[in-house]
Amino acid sequence: MPELIAPTERLHSSWLAAHAEWTPGDHQDGAGMRLAEENAFASPEVFASWVRRLREQSDRTRPLAEGWVHATHWWIVDDGAYAGAIDLRHELNDFLLRAGGHIGYSIRPSARRRGLATWALGAVLPEARALGLDRVLVTCDEDNLASARAIERNGGVLEDTRETELGLKRRYWITL
Fold first, then answer.
1. Which residues, listed in sequence order, are joined to residue 174 by a DSSP beta bridge?
2. Can you tell me the distance from the alpha carbon of 146 to that of 46, in angstroms, rounded to the nearest whole number?
3. Rounded Cα–Cα distance for residues 147 and 164 (Å)
4. pTM tops 0.85
5. Which helix (H) or strand (E) segment is 66 a member of?
6. Is 13 helix (H, G, I), strand (E, B) or coil?
7. Which residues pair with 170 in a beta bridge?
8. pLDDT tens digit sequence for 75-120
9. How crowded is the C-beta side of 169, counted as CA atoms within 13 Å?
């Protein structure tokens, strides 16, 4: 049975194995990779520092750098192993409204086609409601039909498909 957990140093080796499945340079939406000060995740110290930043980003009392919004990060764990990540951005800035949305997620390649994205998105929607949001924007690449299905299965209504700084994106709204 999958579960959502806060990022933890305990899954370092599992996270590294998942990270190795991605093509170098691929974006892992919802994983918070941009919060890492360096891309040396094999180092336990670098990994621990990154995990700490992921957890701190949800603390609304902490000021954030220009252009960032508070977000809560979870790891999707299946059978005790890291299977992916999902984050909930507490509000939309201009960039997120255009391209990124409230929720981002990614599933490691070996864990795809098992319904984890659909499940995780559904599990995070009550968290968005608890933050006071009445609807959320979720986007996906125009050609990512698996992600589009996950969003639609969770009530996503397609607003449009548009060119963004992240490429051609389908934009869905989910009413909470």
1. 136
2. 33
3. 18
4. yes
5. none
6. helix
7. 140, 161
8. 999 999 999 999 999 999 999 999 999 999 999 999 999 999 999 9
9. 21
